[in-house]
Amino acid sequence: MTNLAGGKGANLGELVSFGIRVPPGFVITSKAYSFFLSYNNLHDRINDILNEDIPSSDASNKIKELIISSPIPKSLEETILSSYDDLASKIGKQILVAVRSSATAEDLENASFAGQQDTYLNVNRSELIQKVKMVWASLFNERAIEYRKSKGIDSTKVEIAVVVQKMVNSRSAGVMFTLHPGNGDRNFIVIESSWGLGESVVGGLVTPDEIVIEKSSLKIVEKKLSHKNLKFIYDSSAKSNKEIDISNSPEADQFSISDEEAIELAKFALKIEEHYGIPMDIEWAIDSDLKFPDDVFIVQARAETYWSSKKKVPQRSEGIEVAERKVLVKGLAASPGIASGVAKIILSSKESGRFKRGDILVTKMTDPDWVPLMKIASAIVTDEGGITSHAAIVSRELGIPAIVGTNEATKVIKDGEEITVDATRGIVYQGKIVEEEKIEEQKGSTGLSRDMVLSLYPVTATKIYMNLGQPDVIDKYLDLPFDGIGLMRIEFIVSEWIKRHPLYLIKIGKPEEFVDKLAEGVAKVATAIYPRPVVVRFSDFKTNEYRRLEGGEEYEPEERNPMLGWRGVSRYISPQYEPAFRLEVRAIRKAREEMGLKNVWVMFPFVRTESELKRAIHIMEDEGLRRTQDFKTWIMAEVPSVIILAERFARIVDGFSIGSNDLAQLTLGVDRDSEILGRMGYYDERDPAVLRSMKNLITAAHKYGATVSICGQAPSIYPEVAEYLVRSGIDSISVNPDAVISTRRSVASIEQKIMLEKLRK
Ligand code: PEP
Ligand code: MG
User: Fold this and answer.
1) Ligand 1, closest atom to CA 540?
2) In this protein, which residues make up the domain named PEP-utilising enzyme mobile (predicted)?
3) Do 612 and 761 share a domain, yes or no?
4) Which residue, 138, 148, 157, 56, is CA-closest to 390?
5) N or C end of the chain: smaller count of CB under 10 Å?
6) Are residues 616 and 533 in the same domain?
């Protein structure tokens, strides 16, 4: 049964083990996976790809494609489908299921991989087999491959099971707490309920009905009926959740849960609290496909933090007030968040008896034996390890703040002393500087956790990135389902925060002002979305724009054609601007090294020639920033020369990002700011010449293992460009915030279409 515990945070297996009802389903064991591999002779072919000298991202893509395109043995297919049919026949109709990965026991360590937690929701019978293969393929996500490589784990020996579970056809749903959220009284269970899917209650979009039940007698002591103005349901034709206005329908003012259903839920709540030993926050649903009591399900249980997080607490990205605090140690911010508690120096997992729930674990390094201890820790601090170490990965999965690689935490921190771990900044302070509340996982305006947000959107193989310029607005967009920032323009930080020309700052002896503010702006975004990458583009002001900065006139000539003038890389290597470019590089280095934000990458704009790029990279290296596995250097593909000679450029960079704004301008010879040509329809990124250029770039880049993204406007405004690029094999698409959701949806449907087309062939 423990195989049920597939989904991150969804401790379903554990719930089942002590008698909690969860949505019905079945497990496709790891034996099925190995049978599939041997049937298609995939062990060797996967090994061959893994042994090729190509980046993990390419190996990942190749292996996934291999798995997804290989046929599933007929007998296996029949077994899976008949298990599905059994499930459906018990329920008496066609059902939709969730298909989740579930790491096998032998693969416990890998279970903590984000990469292995692929989940597909609302899958129907005809899609089931394909989705199972996609979950299998997720065993070869890029990060999983890299992790196993670094640990010397043989990828072909790792196995995976798949959990298939009925999607709840949610008549009513909500949350329940094993304490009274109003006054913290632990004698009561409080149920909040509304119609349809649980999102409306969890996201605070309706005022739910409320039922209060006394624990000792299991009697209802209070009932509050609310006017419920909306509900979410799953719309199978649109394949997405849909909001329905019910404010004028009778159900708006009817109780969304019956007394007997509430008591059935309360019984589960008691068991769950007893098992975990702390107040719990539980999500539940009632399935209209089934009859009472089989229709009452628990879908998620976690420690109660919902109400605490509603109180005024510091935002994670703001960090905490640090003045007057004694810093004990610093390290890498491996899993963001803040927590205070009693430090316990535990050097062997066998000493775990001294460790109490809520203590802070301070140790040298963790391994899989430590996981039970880590689960009850409020934060983790280690001497050793990096951002992808065991402690870091597991903490992120568990949502516990963690700082790794401090070198000396076990020596400096005293056993039993109270400390505060600010894992957003990577600093451990003496004493307690946050209230009881633990800061929750990254939250945006709706208050949903990131996992919950992501579960509302389809998973795509093509990464969906977001473009961002102003660091301050990141908080507003944290709820959007993006995989990173594909273009961070720094021009906003320079013009709005720094305001002065970098060469002028150097002249007046204040170069650090430039470095510090730029690093701060970058860090704000990188911290907020950690560990997803932020591709920071070095400055791309034109001379007329630089002139507007304070002190700029002294350094910036008046050019006849600034758009084609002294911009991008040509600046960085010029003797006049080079010192300022070095400040830009130092800011990046500061964010990465002093602030521990290894998710900061860089991108060179307006690259024209290979030789200028080599010189600029040389300057960057001279400032101490070298390309590594976790420090990617991208260039913008904006000038046609980069595309014509893409194979040469691909050998010296990690990736390209298509700047379709400039690329269209320069391919078609059309000034992007010309109103007259614009009105006449000349400026159009969908022009076949521009599209062909993009496709050629993808083909050439992939030959040498470089990735391709796009950060120009085109895919944000033309979904057909996104489709063309997905079909051409682009690795990621970076769009404006308002286009993130629609792009994710359309890319998912294009990817499915491509797979279906391949299957039909
Ligand atoms: C582009 O050229 O497409 C691009 C993203 O850069 P910018 O618009 O800043 O020139
Ligand atoms: Mg550009």
Assistant:
1) 9
2) 355-426
3) no
4) 148
5) C
6) yes
